[in-house]
Amino acid sequence: MPPLTLKVYRKSRLLVGMASFGACAMLLFAPTTLAQHLHDADQPYPVVSPESVGLYKGRLDTLVAMTQSWSDEGRIVGAEILIVKKGQIALHETVGWSDPEAQTPMRHNSIFRLRSMTKPFTGTAALMLVSQGLLDLGAPVGQYLPSWRNPRSGAITVEQLITHYSGFVQNGTPERASTYPNLRAVVDASGEQGPQGVPGEKFVYSDVNTFALGALVAELTGTPLADFIRGEIIQPLELDDVYVGFATDVAWAARTNPTYERNDSGAWEQYWAPTQDLFIPWFRASGGMLATTLGYAQWLTAWLDPSTPTGLAVGGPGGLLPDGLAARALELHGEDEIAGYGYHWEVWNETPLIFGHSGSDGTLGVAVPSQQLLLFYFTQSRRSGTIAEWLEAALEATAPVN
């Protein structure tokens, strides 16, 4: 999913005050409360009152009511909202439906397809190899992948992949990715074809870049990227409910939400259900992970450190990267007139830093290190057009009041 259009946050301070959302539509059913669902999964964070961590219940209630109204009005199918501040849950609510056809409401701790929220895991995997001296950001990709040693792709560097400056456009593979038998095949075909633009000339968000990063990790470690992410990131960080890939027979399949997109008449139509395999059977690096809001919160928490002046774990996440490299990953290494991008992280603001990622099936996870604040808006409503609006409202609802 392309970076969000929150240009107002990139060069400015956080907005202060509460936006007026107007009157909300009458609720079709009340949002479920966290207390009702504590038994569904172990909570990695204690639950506290908003006021105990410097937030205001009235503001958060308005945020929930706005999200509920979107479900009532058909702007989204359903959503799960999570706000964690200072390592404690200040808000965790669900609205709307998981499966409206089956009359299944959205449940706490359900599992969502992350789509492009997978990218920070692939980017981090590549940076881990950089820290180990196995991968050089300044080196041409062809130094590691023979299929990229040609006049068309030979000038592309590893850093241009991780910052989306390679010249490849979105959907820039010779054929649809789903037609290839595995990740390496699509990467080799793309390298042999070459990019559509000039490497290094401008920022163009493209899954091809992430495909290639994933292939580099597999090539240099001799381990499939999916196994590397599981064994070297998810397990050491003890990320609960974060999964690489999906199969209909996994124990957690029944907790996974279907996903919806609008049909020609504008109505939400289910286009994938957890009774089906994923459309691309191999792990594609740019997508293919699934998680709960709490699981992804643990991932973002690994990037934070309240003991530092910035609130950022410059030696993180969780000790996987050396001092400074994590901070470089969250700097603006490329941007266009719409949004900024770091080393496979979306960066919506520099001062104070706001970073995270979104996914095209309707998910968003954001960290504000200076406030030790995490914001999550997970829907299963593909390209609903609500993500940027929700983030703006959430940042206003959680902004410090002087």
Keywords:
Beta-lactamase, 14 strands, globular, 402 residues, three-stranded antiparallel beta sheet, nine-stranded antiparallel beta sheet, alpha+beta, 10 helices
CATH architecture: 3-Layer(aba) Sandwich
- Rg over C-alpha atoms, rounded to the nearest angstrom: 20 Å
- Name the beta content range: 15-25%
- What fold name goes in the CATH topology slot? Beta-lactamase
Summing up helix and strand content along with how strands pair, one would put the structural category as: alpha+beta
The profile of the biggest β sheet is:
9 strands, antiparallel
Report the CATH superfamily.
DD-peptidase/beta-lactamase superfamily
In CATH's first tier, which class applies?
A: Alpha Beta
Strand order of the largest sheet: 3-2-1-14-13-12-11-10-9
SSE pattern: HHEEEEHHHHHEEEEHHEEEEEEH
The low-pLDDT segments are: 7-41
Termini gap: 36 Å
Counting structural domains, the number is: 1
Look at the structure and give the mean pLDDT.
Answer: 90
Number of helices: 10
| Shape by Cα distribution | globular
Strand tally: 14
Estimated helix fraction? 25-40%
